[in-house]
Design a protein that fits this description.
heterodimer, A: about 425 residues, alpha/beta, Rossmann fold, seven-stranded mixed β-sheet, globular, B: ABC transporter involved in vitamin B12 uptake, BtuC, two-stranded antiparallel sheet, 10 helices
């Protein structure tokens, strides 16, 4: 009997202490540092890409803390940044659960999005419900900003704008590009890129002679390429995933599909892709990329420069020093998302969601990732542009837009 | 507009990829036919074969076609170990045939998960590939990638060898006898367990060899096994459950169906056409085109 009483008393005390810590703890923590939550793919199908996101975000936090933290006027001091992350296993349900956990249990101030459009969409439904700002660094689908959400801030170029700059470049080429063939993977993200291509084709006066979608995952794309081969389009614009992109390039090379210009979306932007395809298939293929590690942009040229004063290449050297391996646009985007959070907080002088959201409406900054500006109504990114990179003799060189180009594009593709 | 040239090229390409599908499905069909085991690990063995082709090329500079020879001892070794020490025990413990089938299903699923997870940990999810090694052959304006042609020929030869083995050798005849009735064969002094072991090893070896062939054209990743497993199931049911020759025929039909769908309509419809074909076969010839192996 006595034992039971002690047990009951002990339990009450324990519960009470938990309640007090639970109620007081986060408030005390909130005042000490800025917590940024990141539900991210560290295992599962996006493991490699998600890991780069996390490394980028952590590098940003380390950099911000080296500067003494972020100045928050309301707090009257600079506050340190802490990135709190969990592995989503690249799974939608887990992403949703972890987003809720970050908001309710970890009480983060802001969230960086998960990897990829579908997980970002899933997570955004939750952040919006709780009125938390989420900075999408790896979800580019236009669909994310078509939901009427108020608190999702885009950091990267949305999918329908993926080919815009490349197609503007195509319009200036000689011999002129008149006909286009579109090959698209059947998934929401790539379909959204295709919609953009159709729109720019109309605006720029290209004729679309072939426009087909292939089911995913493909084991053979030669039936589509045989058809394209007969049509001899001036340019092929594909929107595909990394793996299909490799298959598409290999089979196009094997079937000798004749074309003057071959672009594969963002798939060919990594060295792994080049290795998987090999020199024959990869030559002169163009990648549209959110960012490339090149000697641009030059911080001295931009009065609105924000964040570390370095070019893309310098950033990548720094990144490699920290993590042992260089990054592609994925690591950079997460860092850039951190910079956007930081700019918002500094300019709002507060950690309050609505105040930061209002401040971001006035943002127009330049970073090593490029320009950043949002549409005040939706939060979608409208300032950032894509670069076009072409594989030339085993090296990927930036060939457009003109102010970032470091080499002439090889055009038309030699036979 | 469909021209004759386009039609010919489509037919050739459809047959070439169909041959690869057929080869990929041979092992799955054989194991099902003889042992009544649906080997859900078939896909990961295709994946392992592709890594074998890739690895041997990058480490030793060995052409993937030579790696196919390596697949024989590896496939036989893994097959014998898996069968003797694991599958056989499950079959012994199970009290009736249904239980045996269910337990084997779960077991091979588990094996596939372990191998997939191990592959992810060892090689990561990075994309790899054997560079395009062979030139394209042109017949007039028809392009035939020679890697595909070689894959097709390899599929034909391997399919033919399996046919001869099953029809002409004593072991082959025993395998067919076990397929028909596993209890009666014991009266003839055939040990079904030994036959199962041999069939299982052959099935795995064929999966590995198919993987090596696929690595000639297809990018290599741990997940690729899943894609091919799905194709293999369609092909096996199409051709006749448990009939390896049917599987080969099923592969050709699937390859052609996909290619013609693209030519006459759009490639986006190809999975629908594949499954409608499958449904029609199931309705009109429930045992598949060639029926079960006899």
């Amino acid at each position: 009997m006595k034992n039971r009483k002690i047990f009951v008393k002990g339990s009450v005390l324990l519960l009470a202490s938990l309640f007090i810590v639970g109620a007081v703890g986060p408030v005390a923590l909130c005042a000490e540092k800025i917590k940024v939550g990141l539900p991210i793919s560290l295992t599962g199908k996006y493991d490699v890409l998600g890991t780069r996101n996390l490394q980028g975000a952590r590098l940003w936090a380390e950099w911000a803390n080296e500067q003494g933290g972020i100045l928050v006027k309301e707090a009257g001091t600079k506050l340190a940044v802490e990135v709190v992350w969990y592995d989503t296993k690249s799974d939608k349900d887990t992403t949703i659960k972890l987003t809720e956990k970050l908001i309710n249990e970890d009480q983060v101030d802001f969230l960086l999005g998960p990897y990829g459009s579908s997980l970002t969409l899933a997570s955004a439904a939750i952040t919006e419900k709780y009125g938390k700002l989420m900075f999408s660094h790896s979800g580019a689908s236009d669909k994310i900003w078509a939901q009427g959400y108020k608190y999702v801030i885009g950091v990267l170029t949305p999918s329908s704008y993926y080919y815009k700059s490349t197609m503007e470049m195509l319009a200036t080429l000689n011999p002129p590009v008149k006909t286009l063939a579109l090959i698209t993977e059947d998934n929401p993200f790539n379909l959204s890129i295709r919609k953009g291509i159709q729109r720019w084709a109309k605006e720029l006066g290209f004729e679309v002679v072939f426009d087909e979608v292939y089911p995913t995952p493909p084991t053979d794309l030669s039936p589509i390429l045989s058809k394209v081969r007969r049509l001899r389009p001036d340019a092929i614009l594909a929107s595909s995933h990394f793996k299909d992109g490799a298959l598409l390039a290999r089979q196009a090379a094997e079937l000798r599909v004749p074309t003057k210009f071959f672009a594969l979306g963002s798939a060919p932007s990594t060295t792994e892709w080049w290795n998987a395809v090999g020199p024959k298939g990869a030559r002169y293929t163009v990648a549209t990329s959110q960012w490339e590690p090149i000697d641009a942009p030059d911080p001295a040229r931009f009065p609105n420069w924000y964040g570390p004063k370095m070019t893309g290449r310098e950033f990548n050297t720094w990144y490699k020093k920290r993590w042992g391996k260089p990054t592609d646009f994925r690591g950079t985007q997460a860092f850039a998302a951190g910079l956007v959070v930081q700019w918002g907080v500094e300019n709002a002088g507060s950690l309050d969601t609505d105040k930061v959201r209002a401040a971001l409406n006035k943002m127009d900054i330049m970073t090593f990732y490029g320009r950043s500006m949002i549409d005040p109504a939706t939060g979608i990114q409208v300032g950032h542009g894509m670069v076009a990179a072409q594989w030339q003799a085993g090296k990927k060189v930036v060939v457009g837009p003109p102010d970032l180009a470091v080499a002439e594009m090889v055009y038309p593709i030699p036979k | 507009m469909i021209d004759l040239l386009g039609l010919t090229e489509t037919t050739v390409n459809g047959l070439l990829i169909g041959g690869v599908y057929g080869l990929a499905a041979l092992g799955l069909s054989l194991i099902w036919g003889v042992m009544k085991v649906v080997n859900l690990a078939h896909g990961v063995f295709i994946m392992l074969g592709a890594y074998l082709g890739y690895g041997m090329y990058h480490v030793l500079g060995l052409h993937p076609l030579f790696s196919m020879l390596l697949a024989i001892p590896i496939g036989a070794g893994i097959g014998i170990i898996l069968y003797r020490y694991l599958i056989n025990r499950i079959l012994e413990v199970a009290t009736n045939e249904l239980e045996q089938e269910m337990m084997c299903l779960l077991f091979t699923f588990g094996i596939s998960m372990i191998i997939y997870g191990a592959a992810l940990n060892i090689w990561g999810s990075d994309l790899r590939g054997v560079p395009t090694l062979m030139p394209t052959i042109f017949l007039g304006d028809i392009a035939i990638p020679s890697s595909r042609l070689i894959a097709f020929i390899a599929a034909l030869v391997l399919g033919g060898l399996l046919y001869l083995f099953l029809k002409k050798t004593m072991i082959g005849k025993a395998i067919r006898a076990v397929t028909q009735n596993r209890n009666y064969v014991m009266l003839d002094g055939i040990d079904p367990v030994k036959i199962f072991q041999i069939s299982f090893s052959i099935g795995l070896t064929y999966a590995l060899m198919a993987g090596v062939v696929i690595s000639l054209t297809y990018p290599v990743t741990p997940i690729m096994g899943v894609y091919y497993l799905l194709k293999c199931f369609t092909v096996v049911v199409l051709g006749g459950l448990g009939n390896p020759f049917g599987a080969f025929l099923g592969g050709l039909i699937l390859g052609l169906a996909e290619s013609y769908t693209s030519l006459f309509a759009t490639y986006a419809l190809s999975p629908a056409v594949a499954f409608i074909t499958l449904l029609l076969i199931l309705i009109f010839r429930p045992g598949g085109i060639l029926g079960t192996l006899r």
